[in-house]
Each structure stands twice: as structure tokens, then as C-alpha cells.
């Protein structure tokens, strides 16, 4: 996946993107994103890596000495301006697709009949 491509919009990816687009200019570290999205680190970190590969996210390691902090060094992530726009558009598409699917067959979309 090169720059400009769209990652697969799994439900987990949508949860991660919803957390990030809530405050697109804010930097968040990995475990903070995990907690906000309600997902495990093993699910979130591969999603963050994919979003960075396609150019939706940028990241950097914190500068502080982890020994002085008494915890592991954190990697911070933030949506790029282009990534924020693409994420909002992708989330809007998934919401409209889910709405259409619900109107066609409510049971498939998790509704009740």
C-alpha cells in the first residue's frame, strides 16, 4: 500500500480512526489509543502501522529518558492533515454503507427484524 491508498476499513480500524479524528491535531501514544478505542495493543498497533504506511498518520518516539520516567518510552501518533480528511471521508462511507445495508436487511447489519 503506497501513499494515498485506503486501508481496509475493519471495525477495529474504524474504532481507531474515530479516536484519532475526535481530536485530529492531538498526539496520542499507543496504549492511550488502545484504551480509548477499547481494543488490545496487539490489534491497535498493526492498524497504526498500516495507517502510517499509507500516510494517514505520522509518529515519533518521545525524547524523555525511559529510565528517568520509570516506564517504557512512548511512541506518539497524530493524523496528518491529509490523513484526517481521508479518515473522515472513510468513516462517512462506512456509516452510509452500514445504513444502506440496514435498510436492505436489518438482520445483517445487527438490527432486529
From TrEMBL:
Q: Which Pfam families match?
A: PadR
Organism (species):
Pseudonocardia eucalypti
Per its UniProt entry, which superkingdom is the organism in?
Bacteria
Task: Cite the InterPro entries for this sequence.
Answer: Tscrpt_reg_PadR_N, WH-like_DNA-bd_sf, WH_DNA-bd_sf
Name the record gives this protein: Transcription regulator PadR N-terminal domain-containing protein
Q: Where in this chain does the record put each Transcription regulator PadR N-terminal domain?
A: 23-86
Q: What is the phylogenetic placement of the source species in the record?
A: Bacteria, Bacillati, Actinomycetota, Actinomycetes, Pseudonocardiales
Amino acid at each position: 500500500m503506497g501513499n494515498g491508498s485506503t486501508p481496509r476499513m475493519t471495525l477495529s480500524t474504524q474504532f481507531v480512526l474515530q479516536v484519532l479524528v475526535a481530536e485530529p491535531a492531538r498526539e496520542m501514544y499507543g496504549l492511550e489509543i488502545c484504551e480509548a478505542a477499547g481494543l488490545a495493543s496487539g490489534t491497535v498497533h498493526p492498524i497504526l502501522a498500516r495507517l502510517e504506511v499509507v500516510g494517514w498518520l505520522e509518529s515519533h518516539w518521545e525524547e524523555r529518558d525511559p529510565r528517568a520516567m520509570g516506564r517504557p518510552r512512548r511512541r506518539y501518533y497524530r493524523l496528518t492533515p491529509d490523513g484526517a480528511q481521508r479518515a473522515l471521508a472513510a468513516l462517512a462511507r462506512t456509516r452510509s454503507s452500514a445504513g444502506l445495508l440496514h435498510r436492505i436487511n436489518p438482520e445483517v447489519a445487527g438490527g432486529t427484524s
